[in-house]
Amino acid sequence: MSSNLRSLLGRFRALDSVEMAAVVAHDGLLIESASRPDVDVDAICAVASNGLAMADALGREINKGDTMQTLLEYEQGLVLLEPISDEAMLLLMANTREELGQVRFLVAIHRHDLADALNAI
Q1: pTM greater than 0.85
Q2: How far is CA 84 from CA 6, 22, 40, 41, 97, in A?
Q3: Which pLDDT score, from 0 to 100, does residue 121 have?
């Protein structure tokens, strides 16, 4: 896989709260990831693809357009899903909601870089 893509995912993992950063095909297949060793990346990616599909379906039903970002907040963390191409999405998992602003800022500044790195594969 692309070392550039891996490097970009490492920027998200540099945040203390981010346990996993991954680029995932819309069907749930892992393309590249950076995670803590105890994270079951493949299983999470497979399930997370359903979250983006649900958000897309809801957007169509309520006539709000395409999904720009889906954020799922839980008692002990969050999951962020953001489409980066027609075929793939960014998946971030964090163990706290406290760095949400910083996570979203990093996504915004690296969105195009992730798409370019994905296209280079």
Answers
A1: yes
A2: 15, 11, 22, 19, 22
A3: 84
